Amino acid sequence: MPNRNLHQQFYQNRVLDRYSVQEPKKVSLRQLVLFGRQLTEDKLLSSANYVRTELPVRLSHRIRDFQSLPYIAGTNPHIRFVYDLYWQSFDEIRKFPPIRSLNDNRQFCEMLSRNLSLHAQVIPRLGLGLSECLALVASAEIDQFMNQMLVSRISRRTLAEQHIAISEQFDQDIFNTFDQYGLDHAPKGFSTQRTGIVDPACDIAQLLHNCAIKVQAHFEEAYDLPPDTTPQVIIEGHRDALFMCIPDNIEYIFYELLKNSNRAVIESYKDRPAALAELPPIVITICSSVGSDIKIRISDQGGGIPYEVLPHIWSFSSAEKFHRLENLSHVQRLEARIKDSQSLSPFLSFGFGLPMSRVYARYWGGDISIQSLPGYGVDAYITLPRLGTMVENLSVAPATVAQAQSTGDGGAPSPAAS
Q1: Which of 93, 213, 344, 405 is most buried, by CB atoms within 10 Å?
Q2: Can you tell which superkingdom this protein's organism belongs to (predicted)?
Q3: pLDDT tens figures, 99-144
């Protein structure tokens, strides 16, 4: 009798071929904002059908990446779980019929929300599968695969969440929501300027300040410290700078970097109780006067990163990180957002924070680099495009991964090399 599994696999791959030969249609933040303003029903349905046809294309490329892994890695139960999840989403979205009415769109948004929720398991599962394949797959191949998976994940979540958000904005007048709760204005921190998930005029100093407060409160609770005994965060420079961004993405970057700086400073001084009263500050400098980018430097005096560790900080597969990836077994959902980081103890480390932060920065044309002076501290440099005109950066070149492992920053030589 014919092998039905082989026939099924042949059929699935024939379907996959029709999508994987297509190139993703990239967008910029500015396009998302301009399209989302003054929404009409026709524009909303056009957005829905773009997302409906675009997501299967992006999923198909990642399914191909899974199929290109060495066979032994593909049999790992965690990696197989994610692979099956991608196939399930690919099939469900590609089979969704054309969207011709607002009711169709609501059903489509419900399906997207359900998929987003299911995919919250992807990062923990991939991390666990990764940790079990270290001896079986080359480190450079693992890093290439993980970076590409995360870039694609950001791209799909961006399209899905943006469409869900503009659909919700279209379905209800936002100010009616305020009236419902007895408010006559937007709550503090709520941006009425947002178009979907994009803020076209985000206050970077306020975003940094909010992240600093959250990190400090988190560490005071985790270390059982009295109030206001974590390192002071000083924000200086161009405090009035505005830029176009998806705030959730940028918050994740700032939260991770500030968490690292706070932990380094506190750990450096925790054995000297008297010194805890006067911890050296973390200084953030904002510069928006050069070109179309904003540059941020976060400086701490937490002892720095040893030169022998620095070349590996951007890698998902460094051997010294893999005992930390085992911590992912305690995490069921992780979406690479500030709310996820806040729910986890700062003692619980996965080794994902810096690599994921740089993926977020590079996705819209930015970057992160790290300079360390062992025995003193670290300077983290973040570059973020200000105008939102950069299209999505969906590819991760192999040379980029190799460079990340051989340098201590996003491309410049590490202090050890200079």
Answers
A1: 93
A2: Eukaryota
A3: 999 999 999 999 999 999 999 888 888 888 888 888 888 888 888 9
Taken in order of first residue, the domains within the chain and their CATH numbers are 4-177 (1.20.140.20), 199-406 (3.30.565.10)
**Beta pairing, strands 293-300 & 377-385:** antiparallel
Question: Which residue type, as a one-letter code, is found at position 18?
Answer: R
State how far the Cα of 300 lies from the Cα of 298, in Å rounded to an integer. 7
Task: Calculate Rg over the CA atoms of the chain.
Answer: 22
Rounded-to-integer distance, Cα 144 and Cα 132, Å: 17
Q: What DSSP state is assigned to residue 399?
A: H
pTM of this structure: 0.84
List the one residue out of 46, 21, 63, 50 whose CA is nearest residue 152.
63
CA nearest to 377, candidates 250, 267, 214: 267
Residue 168 has pLDDT above 90, yes or no: yes
Question: Which tokens in the block code for residue 64?
Answer: 């191909």
Closest to 354 (Cα-Cα) out of 332, 376, 370: 370
Position 182 pLDDT exceeds 50: no
Task: Give the pLDDT score at 415.
Answer: 26
pLDDT reported for residue 74: 86
Among 241, 243, 217, 211, residue whose Cα is nearest residue 230: 217
For residues 57 and 39, give the distance between their C-alpha atoms in angstroms, rounded to a whole number: 26
Q: What is the mean pLDDT of residues 27-44?
A: 94
**Separation CA 206–CA 219 (nearest Å):** 20
Six-digit token string for 414: 């590490």
Tokens 């360390």 correspond to: 372
Asked whether 311 and 404 are in contact (CB, 8 A), the reply is no
The yes-or-no verdict on residue 5 having pLDDT over 80 is no
Q: Is the dihedral of CA 304, 306, 310, 312 positive or negative?
A: negative
- Nearby residues of 166 by Cβ (< 8 Å), 6 or more positions away: 36, 39, 44, 47, 195, 196
> Backbone dihedral region of 203: left (phi > 0), alpha (psi from -120 to 50 degrees) or beta?
beta
- Cβ neighbours of 373 (radius 10 Å): 13
Q: Which residues pair with 233 in a beta bridge?
A: 282
Say which residue, 415 or 390, is predicted with more confidence. Answer: 390
Residue type for 296, please?
Answer: I
What confidence tens digit (pLDDT) does each residue in 52-97 have?
Answer: 999 999 999 999 999 988 888 888 999 999 999 999 999 999 999 9
Percent share of the chain, pLDDT over 90:
56
